[in-house]
Request: fold
Amino acid sequence: MDLLPDAPHRRLNRLTGEWVLVSPHRTARPWQGQVEETTQEKRPEYDPSCYLCPGNTRAGGVKTPVYDSTYVFDNDFAALLPEAAGGGVDDGLLVARPERGLCRVVCFSPRHDLTLGGMSQPALRTVVDTWADQYAELGALDWVGHVQIFENRGAMMGASNPHPHGQIWATESLPNEPAKELAQQAEYTGDCLLCDYLAAELGDGSRIVDSNEHFVSLVPFWAVWPFETLVLPRVHHGSLTDLDGTDRDGLADILGRVTRRYDRLFGITFPYSMGFHQRPTDGGDHPKAHLHAHFYPPLLRSATVRKFMVGFELLAQPQRDITPESAAQRLRDLDSD
Reply:
C-alpha cells in the first residue's frame, strides 16, 4: 500500500464519511505562532479549595460527601434539564425543538493529585464499572436516546477543575457525531465496520500503539488530531454493559497505558478530550454499533505548541501535518508501565 509518506494526500474517515487532508512536508515549517505556557504543578492529595475534593462545598452550595472511591453527582450547572419543555419552531426553514437531558459529574478518585494514568488497576476498573452502571441507569429512562461519557483533561481542553473527573450527558436525541458514525456503521455492507477495520490495522501494524488480550489502542488511519488515538475491543461489543469482568479489566488496563504514554510524550500531564461512542439507548437494536473510545489531544510539536482547527479546517476540511504512522511510532516507543 502506497501511503504517500512525503506528499500531500487525503484520507477517508470510514467512521464519519468525511475526508482529512494530510500534509507531511509541512513539519519542516517554522513556528512563530502562539506558544502555550507550561507549568508542572505538584498538586496535593487534598485541596481545601477544590469543590470536588471529599468534604468540600461545591460552587452551587452543595457539600461533597467524604467519598473513598468514584463519586457521581448531578452537575450543579447542567447544560440540559430533565423537565420536558413545550414549544419549538418549525416553519420549514427555521427549526428548533426542545431537548431534555441529564448531566452528571464522575469523580474518578478522592485524590486531587491523580489522573487516569496515575491510578491503580483496581481503581481504574472501578471507574469502568461506574461508567457502565451510569450508562445502564441513564439509558433505562424511557426518554433518553443517547448517553455520552467523556473527560476533558487539562485547562487547554476547557477543564474547569484539575481534580480527576469526567462527565456524562444523557440526551433525548442522538447528537451529531454519534449519529454520523452510527449511519456509517449501519450502511457498511460487511458484518461490522470496526471489526473489519481493526483486523486490517492489526494486519498492517504501523498504526498500532498498544494492546492487551481484550483491547487495542491505535492512531486511526484517518486521524485528525496529531496524536489522536482510538481504543477498540478485539471482539464485537455494542456497549460498556456488554463487557464481562475480564473485558473490563482489559479496558482499564489499556486506558492506563494510553494516558501514561501521553504523559511521557512531552513530559507533562497531557491534555485531551476523551469519550466513548456506543450503542444508543433509544430502544433500537443497532447490531452494527461497536463500542470504542476516542482520544483527541491538541498538542502538536511540543508541550507548548498546539494544533489549531482554524481557517481551512473550519471552512473546508480537517488537515494534519505529521502522518498517523509517525505519530503511532512515537507513542509506541514510549514506556506504558
Summary: The chain has one domain: 44-85+96-332. The chain has six helices and 14 strands.
